[in-house]
## 1
Amino acid sequence: MAAARDPPEVSLREATQRKLRRFSELRGKLVARGEFWDIVAITAADEKQELAYNQQLSEKLKRKELPLGVQYHVFVDPAGAKIGNGGSTLCALQCLEKLYGDKWNSFTILLIHSGGYSQRLPNASALGKIFTALPLGNPIYQMLELKLAMYIDFPLNMNPGILVTCADDIELYSIGEFEFIRFDKPGFTALAHPSSLTIGTTHGVFVLDPFDDLKHRDLEYRSCHRFLHKPSIEKMYQFNAVCRPGNFCQQDFAGGDIADLKLDSDYVYTDSLFYMDHKSAKMLLAFYEKIGTLSCEIDAYGDFLQALGPGATVEYTRNTSNVIKEESELVEMRQRIFHLLKGTSLNVVVLNNSKFYHIGTTEEYLFYFTSDNSLKSELGLQSITFSIFPDIPECSGKTSCIIQSILDSRCSVAPGSVVEYSRLGPDVSVGENCIISGSYILTKAALPAHSFVCSLSLKMNRCLKYATMAFGVQDNLKKSVKTLSDIKLLQFFGVCFLSCLDVWNLKVTEELFSGNKTCLSLWTARIFPVCSSLSDSVITSLKMLNAVKNKSAFSLNSYKLLSIEEMLIYKDVEDMITYREQIFLEISLKSSLM
């Protein structure tokens, strides 16, 4: 009689914990060739970001938080036009060729795209999405360590080539005890996760060739007829991407980024990461070197994967509905990529017991760290991680989340809030659903519910200064208007931005905004005071936040004001890392005395 099978959520949790334990064993150890990645490369948008990433990698290696004997690189996009993660991929291939010549044709390479400015999760803007702290581990894990842990089995079962992934998502999966995900076929190989049709509209969707087996297994190797990028539900049906629920049972199906997927619903298989063999990588590199300079954004998923598989057609190249900025060269570039890659195979590794989490917005960040029991159980996330703070009560299924911070025992943090890399004194109260990052508050302060507060060290005229961005967690920093007369359409903490300017005694002029004067947004608004100390910076920004909430005047006229865009230009990475290190050492010392 066959042994009873664990429920999918149990096997998923156990598989995840095994990977975390295995990675923990490799932290700070010299790894043998073939035991781990030969190269781990992270992309950066500009030279400031490149410097920040290199400084953090250096610190991690010094503290033995990463496996040793691996080549870690940061590859920066060329200056000029934005080139998207597809362009960053091509640029990274060129960097590898320059550094290693023909040697890299025998390497297993992990390429992590982390070149954005994280406007939807600004506590990751200064130091990077891939260095986002997680409530896990001692010393704490950041997204980089979690990525390396979750992919721990891949290099052992991979032909030379490149695995391409993004910095702000988490893929969890469980397969049979003696099974492995193999990346050993020519062309491209992508992971696929069962998802609801609604989720499919915001992801890539695979149109798989027919499958003969009557019952789905946790791991299936499938061939893909074509790939659809963010298709409408109508298109999913039109191209036969939709699967029927007939041969799925509760034992087979884990869920994932598919909380809204019912077991009796139609579903699709969506994308996450993909691998390309060395031959395909060299083909893309030759193409990039031939065209010279890119002047438009290329999507590694939409523009590479849609060209693959026998069913791929050129029509998608003219569909720019999912493009943020449409350049005149985009359609021509897509068509050139299509003809380059056409005929290349797209292999799909279907993971029926898997989950895909995206942590790229304030809403997702707060939900997964304070409210979602699934991810908490699977990864072993904690309410208090490497911090000094008394136990946290749970309220309505929510807890607060404290990461590498020192909080006075009389300080109060409401459920649903996250505090990272901060010091909070006895008279500080944090409302619910707040994000507090890199801050220092010792005086009496009340942070309103739904506040976002993040402090940055700045280097201005060779002097150390500080600024704290403060707004509502639901504010849309990316929303922009073209003229000053339209800034009434922007909202700060749920209040008309024009009204906020009145509260702060600021005039509506072009000088109020940095950068492009036809793209006016909260991101480019010069409203955040520059101060000489970190604590003054936090308190001053809280005063402007509370002034809006209480409709009471607080003049910003006497301050030097910066936009978030400018804060990132002036950021002093070294001082921010030093501040985190001071907190780390103090917690370590107190922990050793307890």
Note: The chain has a mean pLDDT of 93.
## 2
Amino acid sequence: MALSFSFGGLPIPPLIDRTAIACSSNNSSSSHAFDAAYIKRAAELADKSAGFTAPHPNLGCVVATTANGSGKEGRPGVVVGEGYLYAEGTSPAELQAVESAGELSRGATAYLNMEPGDCYSDRTAVSALVNAGISRVVIGIRHPLPHLRGNAIRALRSEGLKVDVLGEDIQSKTIEEALKSCLLVNAPLLYRAANRVPFSVLKYAMTLDGKIAASSGHASWISSKKSRTLVFQLRGRSDAVIVGGNTVRRDNPRLTARHGGGHLPRRIVMSRTLNLPEVANLWDVAEVPTIVATQRGARKSFQKYLASKDVEVVEFDILNPKDVMEYFYDRGYLSILWECGGTLAASAITSGVIHKVHAFVAPKIIGGRNAPSPVGELGMVEMSQAMELIDVSYEQIGPDMLISGFLQPVPDLSPTIPSIEETSAVDPSVSPYESSIIFFYKTWDPYGAFSNFSPHAIRIPDENGDYFTWPSVEHYYQAQKFIGVTDPIAQTCLDEIKSARSPEEAARIGRKIQRQHPHLVRDDWESVKINIMYKGLKCKFSIYPHLNSMLLSTAGSVLVEASPHDLFWGGGRDGEGLNYLGRLLMQLRSEFLGDFSASHDQSTTHQERKDELNRL
């Protein structure tokens, strides 16, 4: 039976059958009960995208009207529309829900597990609700990001819609339970926003006597097949899986998500000395990348060997879990699963980066004085020092017992992260953005619409010269790698990119084929890719007036694509990147402002454009 997951991977039963909800009531307690049920359903929908939206929230929307078609408050009826954010750069949940509901949206109530953001930079989610005739909006929690927090709520209320926020405008025991479901489904985002590190979950399987392997090191298998299947699903909900060098040497893991859906998490290996085997399953990056984090200067010859295998190596001055997690926070990672041994687990817990624990306990006893345990030395000498889990749950998985709980409570961001308006009111000298340098990276950033991953469709001729609507600039860019290549694999890849449900998926498809079959990439790709990106960006900023205005409003500022790992299109971790995406946008801005002739881009060669960009 398929499992439906909440925030941390625990199976929960389906909350609501959308085809079966039909009720009526007039009293306040019943109204709260229905509000709570619909909000829980929105959270359940939102959870469907876990692993795909990073670093965006999991967003779900339910549109409910009364049985007689009236949307009056306090008279719940039937669910007429649903939607959820599938991935970064895809249609908002609110838009999907009202389109599904059609005319039944008029006078209805929309239930959202979280306040919507604005990745389109045109208030698409708010506009969808307003234009559909929604009369009331119930929101689980406010958006945790300071530049988005409260914006949609104010916008909806300014349009005359009634907006109720759980715990603020409506309160009861039932509402508290619904509020908890909203917090849990986006716990990774809340932890990330509060702590500025990805949400980290420590997972391990141990015997009843607390061993993760025999004295010999043999560990296959401690847990049951059902438990291991659940682990695959936990991996599929994570952006990355981390292990240490000992695990690579001892177990030679693959760290795949074979039963976890379409999402494949990256594999991360932490090793100070790079004392790692030359032959390992993790060095096979045909399906999914591997990143090795190590101490600066460690085994340079082995670093070159890994690079020859297309394994990315990232050096740290001092390798420790805190710095590694801050680095992957900068790369946009939302949730990370730690499947390491006891030594690294203890270091991660001591560093304060582990937020939750999943412990699979098998009804087995292995014994052994030297048999390893799941957590190494923490420096505690008294039981009163022991760390106690919060919100603990217990579930039997086949013969095993899964014990889960938080090491740190789910953050309440309301008192700790004020909105931009609130901050400016307290200290008018505080500006949320640097005036001379504007950074952008993910589409949820204040200037995230500048990204080639933003959800703005463009209409440009395809390989046959026929106009085709590309879902994003990234779809268009990745497809151009294979234009004119007659090989069937290239044609299949081109079709898959066109139909990819998100820019991230289009990028994964294009990069994977380029990595596995470099001979299928068009011969002139390196000499034309800058012009291709420029063409896609120019189309986007030409057909969306609000984006054009946003770009022109940055006149005088340096634009930097803040990707810490893309040293060509981005600015790099320490500013060492070439920042070609930022440079293209600045050149485009100059063209729109009249500094270039209208035909400039048509007559500029790749090298000429590159030279101009280098002067910016």
Note: The two ends are 57 Å apart (CA to CA).
